[in-house]
Amino acid sequence: xxxxxxxxxxxxxxxxxxxxxxxxxxxxxxxxxxxxxxxxxxxxxxxxxxxxxxxxxxxxxxxxxxxxxxxxxxxxxxxxxxxxxxxxxxxxxxxxxxxxxxxxxxxxxxxxxxxxxxxxxxxxxxxxxxxxxxxxxxxxxxxxxxxxxxxxxxxxxxxxxxxxxxxxxxxxxxxxxxxxxxxxxxxxxxxxxxxxxxxxxxxxxxxxxxxxxxxxxxxxxxxxxxxxxxxxxxxxxxxxxxxxxxxxxxxxxxxxxxxxxxxxxxxxxxxxxxxxxxxxxxxxxxxxxxxxxxxxxxxxxxxxxxxxxxxxxxxxxxxxxxxxxxxxxxxxxxxxxxxxxxxxxxxxxxxxxxxxxxxxxxxxxxxxxxxxxxxxxxxxxxxxxxxxxxxxxxxxxxxxxxxxxxxxxxxxxxxxxxxxxxxxxxxxxxxxxxxxxxxxxxxxxxxxxxxxxxxxxxxxxxxxxxxxxxxxxxxxxxxxxxxxxxxxxxxxxxxxxxxxxxxxxxxxxxxxxx
Length: 514
Ligand code: GLC
Ligand code: CA
Hints:
By secondary structure, the chain is an alpha/beta fold. The chain folds into three domains: 5-105 and 172-441, Alpha-Beta Barrel (TIM Barrel); 109-161, Oligo-1,6-glucosidase, domain 2, CATH 3.90.400; 454-513, Immunoglobulin-like (Sandwich), CATH 2.60.40.1180. Helices cover 26% and strands 13% of the residues. The chain has 14 helices and 16 strands. The strands form three sheets. Strands 9-8-7-3-2-1-11-10 form an eight-stranded parallel beta sheet. A five-stranded antiparallel beta sheet has the order 12-13-14-16-15. A three-stranded antiparallel beta sheet has the order 4-6-5, with no helix packed on it. Strand 13 (466-471) and strand 14 (475-480) form a beta hairpin. The longest helix has 17 residues, at 334-350. The model has no long low-confidence stretch (mean pLDDT 97). The structure holds alpha-D-glucopyranose and calcium ion. Residues 60, 63, 100, 164, 200-201, 244, 305-306 line the site of alpha-D-glucopyranose (GLC). One of its GO terms (biological process) is oligosaccharide catabolic process. It comes from Kribbella italica.
C-alpha cells in the first residue's frame, strides 16, 4: 500500500467496550478484538480506529484518560495492544488510535498533583484553574458541552474549567509543558506502530476565559498545535491525522486541512443532513469544494459512537440530526429506516475519499432507545437531568451469534443489555443471508476497494429527487429519493441496495452501474 493509503481508505471504528469480550466480564477487550480480526479482514476494511483504550475511570467512556501511555486494565495490557497492532498489520489492517488533547481525567497524576500543589503552583498551570467571583460564583457562567456549569470548585476555593464532565479537567494549551507532553505521547504510540491519530475535540483547545460568552471553538492559536503534530507524524512513514471538529463554517474547517496540518477530518455535515436529494447533493458539493482545491481527501461518515444509528435516524419523520436534538423516542419506521440506511451506505461508499464505518452499522443495528434509566452511563443523561438520554443507545454490545443475549458477545452479562430481537441481526445470521446488511457492506467495500476510493466525481443530469454521478467514468451511482421507481442507465448492474422493481430502481434505493 502507498504512503497515502488513507486517502481512499475504508476505516472501521471499534468501540472496544462493546465490540467483543474475551474474558467474560461483560466488557469488550483486546482479546475479543484480536479474535475478531478475521471478521474485519473478511469485511474488507483497510484500518481500524479505536476509541480511547487508555486507563480510565470511564466517566465518559474512556474520554477521561488517566494515563496516555498505558492500556485500560479491563481492555488488556500494553503487550496485548502491541500484539494486536502486529496481528492486524499481518492481515493488511492498519490502526488509528484516539488522542484526547483537550482534557484528561481527574484521576490522572497531573491533576492529582495540581490539587495537592495548591493555587499559583506550576502544577496548576497545566490546567485552567481560576479564582471565583464574589459571592461564591465560578469565574464565569460558561456551560459544559455535557450540560451544567463548566466549572467545578476544589476544596481550597479555586475553580477549574471542564468543557465536558467535571471528571475531565481541561488542559492549559498555552503552557509549553502541555505541548511537549503531547508530542511525547504521539511519539510513544507512533513508535509502537500505530498508523493514524484521531484527534478528539480538536477545535476547542484554546479558551478566552475573560469572555462572558463561551469562547473556545476554533481559536486561531489551535493551528500551531497541529503544525507541531504534523511535523512529528511526518517523521514516520505512511502515518496520518484525522481531526474531530464539529464546525458549521466549512471555510474555517478547511484551514485545519492545510498542507502542514491534518491530512483529514471527519465530515459531519453529511451525517447531519436529512434524507433529501437536494440536501445530500448540497452537502457533497460543499464538501468537495472545500477539500478538492487544497488537495485534502474528503471523508464520509454515516455514524459513530456519538450519534443516532442510521437505521433509526432515517426511519424518523424528521431525518435530520444534531447533538442538540437527538429526537429520542420520536416514532420510527425501522423497515423504512433500514432501506434508506442501505441506500445511504452505497452512496457514501461511492463518494471520493475516505469512508468511516462504525461497528454495528454494517449489521444495521438500530439505536436502542429503551435502555433502563438506571443503566445509562453517558454523563449527558445525569447532567441534563434526564432531558437528554445521551449516547448509550448506539453503544450497545455487538450481537455475534446465537438466539439470545449476550449473542456471543462474551460469556458474561454485557455492560449494556442487548434487545432480545437482535437475534436476527447477529453476524452469524447475516453471514448466512445474501441479502443482509452485512452482505451489502461486504460486497460494497470489495467493489469500492478495486473501483472507487479517492478520485474524481462528475454529476450527471437527473430528475429532481435523484442523485446520479460517475466516478472516473467507469462506475455510475444512482440514488432514487423519489417515491416512484425510475429507469436505470444501460450497463452492467454491479450492486443495488434493495431489489429492483421489474428492472427499475425503486424508491430509497441506490444502484451501482458500470
Ligand atoms: C468527542 C468524543 C466524545 C467525547 C467528547 C469528549 O466528541 O467523540 O465521545 O464524549 O469528545 O472527549
Ligand atoms: Ca472483557
